UniProtKB/TrEMBL annotation:
Keyword annotations: Methyltransferase, Transferase
GO molecular function, one term: S-adenosylmethionine-dependent methyltransferase activity
Pfam families given in the database record: Methyltransf_11
Keyword Phosphoprotein: no
Organism: Methylovulum psychrotolerans
Keyword Methyltransferase: yes
InterPro entries, per database record: Methyltransf_11, SAM-dependent_MTases_sf, Thiol_S-MT
Methyltransferase type domain ranges (all copies): 48-141
GO biological process: methylation
Superkingdom, taxonomy of origin: Bacteria
Name recorded for this polypeptide: SAM-dependent methyltransferase
Coiled coil: none
Length: 205
């Protein structure tokens, strides 16, 4: 089931005010510790966060860095702006689609995204944009939920994906590791603590 950016954007705009509540349980049980591990790998001064959402990563931002964060959903970005004001976070927030970034080539030391590429209609196009704006020698760090390697579970995920996509704008059957390896990175590795369906991917340009 293919979905264009405008359709996905509208879905995220719709759920933006309730997003924190909708993900509260899974965030507390699983995602929060993975976010901490993700941001521990960030280095360099100029950082780009793609898919800032409601600002769930704000607590992990390194204090020494200049951080730019983008999202393609005005509704989600509004939530992030409110979080920025409440938590006094220093970050430049921009409305932008990862499939067509406005930044110049070789702009960022590290590019970070968490649970984003399940929602990007053309993931390879978005990943190639991350490669383009990352500096030579820099890194792209992705925390993603992906298709299970277990055939029965993978079959079920494929079957459920159209419903999940229709309701939430997210795919649950993406093979993001394979997609990253299809881009011209010098190296791609998966963090050794990654599980079957949550992968922390480290790509070096």
């Amino acid at each position: 089931m293919k979905t264009d950016s405008e359709t996905v954007r509208k879905r995220y705009d719709r759920i933006a005010p309730y997003f924190e509540v909708l993900e509260a349980v899974i965030e507390g049980l699983f995602f929060k510790r993975w976010r901490k591990r993700l941001w521990a790998k960030v280095d360099g001064y100029h950082i780009l966060e793609v898919g800032v959402g409601t600002g769930k990563n704000f607590a992990h931002y390194p204090g020494y860095a200049r951080i730019t964060a983008i999202d393609f959903s005005p509704g989600m970005l509004k939530q992030a702006q409110q979080q920025r004001e409440r938590k006094k976070v220093v970050v430049d927030l921009e409305l932008m689609d990862v499939q067509a970034l406005y930044f110049a080539d070789n702009s960022f030391d590290t590019v970070v995204a968490s649970f984003v590429f399940c929602s990007v209609p053309m993931p390879l196009k978005g990943l190639k944009e991350l490669h383009r704006v990352c500096k030579p020698g820099g890194q792209v760090l992705l925390l993603e939920h992906v298709l299970s390697s277990r055939p029965p579970l993978a079959w079920l995920m494929h079957r459920l994906n159209p419903l999940v996509l229709r309701l939430f704008g997210a795919n649950i059957d993406r093979n993001t590791v394979k997609n990253v390896k299809a881009c011209p990175f010098v190296s791609v590795r998966v963090d050794e603590q990654s599980g079957d369906m949550i992968k922390l991917i480290e790509a070096r340009k």
